[in-house]
Automatic annotation (TrEMBL):
Keyword hit for Cytoplasm: yes
Organism: Anaerotignum faecicola
Signal sequence residues: none
Domain Ribosome maturation factor RimP N-terminal: 14-86
Pfam families (alphabetical): DUF150_C, RimP_N
UniProt entry keywords in alphabetical sequence: Cytoplasm, Ribosome biogenesis
The protein, known as: Ribosome maturation factor RimP
Location(s), subcellular: Cytoplasm
HAMAP family, per database record: RimP
GO annotation, cellular component aspect: cytosol
Keyword Cytoplasm in annotation: yes
UniProt xrefs under InterPro entries: Ribosome_maturation_RimP, RimP_C, RimP_C_sf, RimP_N, RimP_N_sf
């Protein structure tokens, strides 16, 4: 699971007080280039889910602070949104909160012939993620080998 890049690390201390003041949870922060544009994406959540007013409030407050402190050199587009139903699990607290839920795990390189797994989250302990697949097989992954973990979308 990736560590924040330099720009994300600069923005995080500016963003965290805004999120806390509004009673929200920071799910993810990313600064990425897509095509010719740079995007600063902030994903927020709260019990019961976020709405457009929550996103707007964070966006407006963050814009003011970013303009004031100017930690980002290049032009960028700010996006604030919900993490969606397939929310990423990144923090240790996420793995506790969503224990027992079905998750999708993507690896950097194949393990036992596959880079993608799905199963019930058993837990994250000492840098090892454990899931139980539908067939009852327990699979473990070293945290350093994991590209992403998301809540599964099952219809």
């Amino acid at each position: 699971m990736a560590k924040p890049n330099n720009t994300e690390a600069k923005v995080l201390p500016i963003l965290e007080p805004i999120i806390a003041e509004k009673g929200l949870e920071l799910v993810d922060l990313e600064f990425v280039k897509e095509g010719v544009n740079w995007y600063l994406r902030v994903y927020i959540d709260k019990d019961g889910g976020v709405n457009i007013d929550d996103c707007e409030a964070v966006s407006r407050a963050l814009e003011v602070k970013l303009d004031e402190k100017d930690p980002i050199e290049q032009a960028y587009i700010l996006e604030v949104s919900s993490p969606g139903i397939d929310r990423p699990l990144k923090k240790d607290a996420d793995f506790v909160k969503y224990q027992g839920e079905i998750i999708d795990v993507k690896l950097y390189k194949a393990q036992d012939g596959s880079k993608q797994y799905q199963g019930r989250l058993l837990g994250l302990e000492n840098g090892v993620l454990s899931i139980e697949e539908e067939n009852g097989n327990v699979v473990k992954f070293e945290q350093k080998d994991i590209a992403s973990v998301r809540l599964a979308v099952i219809f």
